[in-house]
Amino acid sequence: MKDNSVPLKLVSILADGEFHSGEQIGEKLGMSRAAINKHIQTLKEWGLDVFTVTGKGYCLPAPVQLLDEAEINRNLEQQGLAVIPVIDSTNQYLLERMGSLKTGDACVAEYQHAGRGRRGRQWFSPFGANLYLSMYWRLEQGPAAAMGLSLVIGIVIAEVLQRLGAEGVRVKWPNDLYLNDRKLAGILVEMIGKTGDAAQIVFGAGINLKMRTPDATVVNQGWINLQEAGIAINRNELVSLLVNQLRHSLRDFEREGLAPFLSRWQRLDNFINRPVKLLIGDREVLGIARGIDQQGGLLLEQDGVIKSWVGGEISLRPQN
């Protein structure tokens, strides 16, 4: 694994958003200016904009609040969270360690170089701009009991963001969060287990907090971040609240299923009672969204008849 200790020290120096001369940085890190430039290139590869001004030095365009593992863990009701600043994928990190994890163990990262979205898509993950969080959960009832899990995760994230000031955040079936009709966050659930066995689940969430212009080859739909909406959130507080609340709500889900969450979903549903189209492969199904059923299926009304739709290949868009 590549040693990222020097670039991470460099980020911690530049995180205040002020100019730092090459000489100052060189003294702190014990290296030449040429060596510093090499590590500045690494920061740029991570998606950080680093300004270089002759006579002034280096700076970031704005301060970056770095994730603080000690601070987050101080505010957790139970331990079991790791901060890994640079990672391939938070989901992959937990999937590779499932044998040693306890239910509710989680990790967060500053930067993912192989972040994953649904259907094999890449998840754009610049350093320090967003939140990338994954959690492990073991469902003793088996894979069938996981129906609706992504909806519960979405509800929890939306409610926590609302609590922190993002009052307009809504959920989109089956696994996205929206703000002002644009995508704010996505959820990916990955499960191992067969009928009769416990289901081992790793789920991840990516939340756009301060994301700058994303790679258009990766992000292909309307998106928004909280900063653009005028909302500033402490990332360390967000992590601890999310992890605490996810652990509580998923235990409720284990005991009671989706039923206690149905009214909460309806209150948060971005598309409730709106004309939508479902995309199922090359097929489009038009109708009016009427919420979800007890199994987490999307209720779609067509010609006065309401039918439930489920399946991983269904996506939801407002009709033009």
Structural account:
- About 2% of the residues have low confidence.
- Strands 3-5-7-11-10-9-8 form a seven-stranded mixed β-sheet. The chain has a five-stranded antiparallel β-sheet with strand order 15-14-13-12-16.
- The termini are far apart.
- It contains eight helices and 16 strands.
- With 320 residues, it is an alpha+beta fold.
- The longest helix is centred in the last third of the chain and has 22 residues.
- A hairpin with a 3-residue loop joins strand 1 and strand 2.
Spatially, the strands of the biggest sheet line up as 3-5-7-11-10-9-8
Which quaternary structure do these chains form? Answer: single chain
Shape: globular
Task: Encode the helix/strand succession as letters.
Answer: HHHEEHEEHEEEHEEEEHHEEEEE
Distance between the termini: 47 Å
Helix content percent band = 25-40%
- Which consecutive residue ranges, at least 5 long each, have pLDDT under 50? 216-220
> Helical element count?
8
Radius of gyration: 21 Å
The count of strands amounts to: 16
**Biggest β-sheet: count, sense, barrel?**
7 strands, mixed
Architecture blueprint of SSEs:
Layout: H1 5-14, H2 22-29, H3 33-45, E1 51-53, E2 57-59, H4 69-74, E3 81-83, E4 86-87, H5 90-95, E5 106-109, E6 111-112, E7 130-139, H6 149-163, E8 170-172, E9 176-179, E10 182-192, E11 199-208, H7 235-256, H8 262-268, E12 275-280, E13 283-292, E14 298-302, E15 305-309, E16 314-318
Parallel strand pairs: 3-5, 4-6
Antiparallel strand pairs: 1-2, 5-7, 7-11, 8-9, 9-10, 10-11, 12-13, 12-16, 13-14, 14-15
